[in-house]
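Hi there,

I know you've been waiting on this one. I reran it after we fixed the sequence typo, so this is the corrected version. Both the input and the resulting structure follow.
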Amino acid sequence: NTFFFNRTSAKWGMDITQVLSNGKSLLTFGVESRSQRALALKMRWNISKKISTNWTLRSVNNDLFTPKFSNRNYLVKQHIAEPSLSYVNGTKMRVTVTYGYNNKKNTIGYFEKSTANTFTTEAKYNVLSSSSINARFSLSNIQFSYAPGGSANSTVGYILLDGLMPGKNYLWNLEFTKRLSGNIEMTIQYDGRKPGEARTV
């Protein structure tokens, strides 16, 4: 369900979205149930023709229940805040800076908890009408804790860390797109990451 306010305004607008999702899977070891409830508030404000800002606030409840494997079960409550500022120079260039605060807590099991502060910079430059360059860099500092017996290398740990590691995580991406003809496009992409204490990939 989504409620829009001032949707067609070129100056400002907002929307509230609620998502309810439930599912059951019959597997070889029994029934596995998943459910998710998310509530999101998004606000936008075009400060000028070149500068705009967006704010996103989200609250998510994520649940997995497997009777046969209690160590896989979790009930994660998540709170997210993501303000961003964008600069647009016509159709040639766009630069966006985003800060993200993400707090996740498992309310059962080993009570795992993660708090992530993420800074992201993204730039897009249109070289010509047929070519563009995209660059993205993010630094995510994650604090992770759990009760005795818990681990970061678990199903819950993977979800709370978004596949990253506790500590500082660096991610970067560079992409070049070239339109060769009306129906053919070529893309060259480079991705890298340095998760926590692990080696650079």
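Quick highlight: The helical segments are 155-161.

Best,
R. S.
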